[in-house]
Amino acid sequence: MAVDAARTEEGFTSARAARVMAAACRAAGLDDRDAELIRLGENALFRLASVPVIVRVARGEEWLPTARTEVAVSRWLADEGFPAAGIIEDLEQPFLIDGHPVTFWHLIVEGDRKATYGELGGVLRDLHSLTLPDGLVLPSFSPFGKQELRMDRAVIPEDDKVFLRKRWRELRYKYAELRFETAKGPVHGDAHVQNLMVDDQGRVILIDFEAFCYDHPEWDLMVTAVEHHSLGWQTDEQYADFVAAYGRDLYDWHGYETLRGIQEFGMTTWLMQNVQEDEETAAEYRRRIAGLRNDDAPRDWRPW
Prior knowledge:
- With 304 residues, the chain is an alpha+beta fold.
- 41% of the residues lie in helices and 13% in strands.
- It has helices at residues 14-28, 64-80, 117-128, 147-153, 158-177, 218-229, 236-246, 256-272, 279-292, and strands spanning 2-3, 36-40, 43-47, 53-58, 95-97, 100-106, 185-187, 196-198, 204-206, 213-215.
């Protein structure tokens, strides 16, 4: 469903996302008054005050196939009885508002604790054991698919863009040489512990399907392995729980260093999209780009 509106050249800011969200709510017959922005990343996420609904606004029309995949994956996981975020079923989704795909999701009422790394390992083990149904066609994992757009649009120094393009070419070459030994299957594509929620009934729920794909499971193990071994974001005990629940430590695999480079590059280019939002984001971007420029330096990056 599309709604036409005047385009602007301001880029994807929180203010623009709010206007798109409001127009999408009008098109869906929902009340956007007092909606709250809860996250600005690859998407802008808003919590409506009027009904228990989350609105996801994507950055541009090129993300429309991704939004369609998210909707299809949500429906499939619901059919499987897999604990996952659910779309609002009685709306024709995704909407396309002023060039931005918009989707509507049931609000997950959080409980009093966060998901553990052991639970993340178990959820990924169960997800990777599922068989895709006939008719659900998923893309392959695309480690470089969004990077060129990010580099083109980011408000960063030209010297950073030159460096990032060079690193991008190097990583693509290393990736072309990489050989996987596992079978392909359903892959979340952004499998960090923040993409699990524990609801008020104690259920652990998988969220955020924009990178969902059909590929090798290493792409899901990569995230936590890099966060631990490179960035030190988990204790040894937390990471051991993750490995025990899943049954594998990606650090022992010959391709770990290549995937580490891809993950760190993606984490940096993801953040750089929002450097114009505030100084805190800009400072963290500078910290990450400095780390990329020195592979041997300690990573003092902060979770975001």
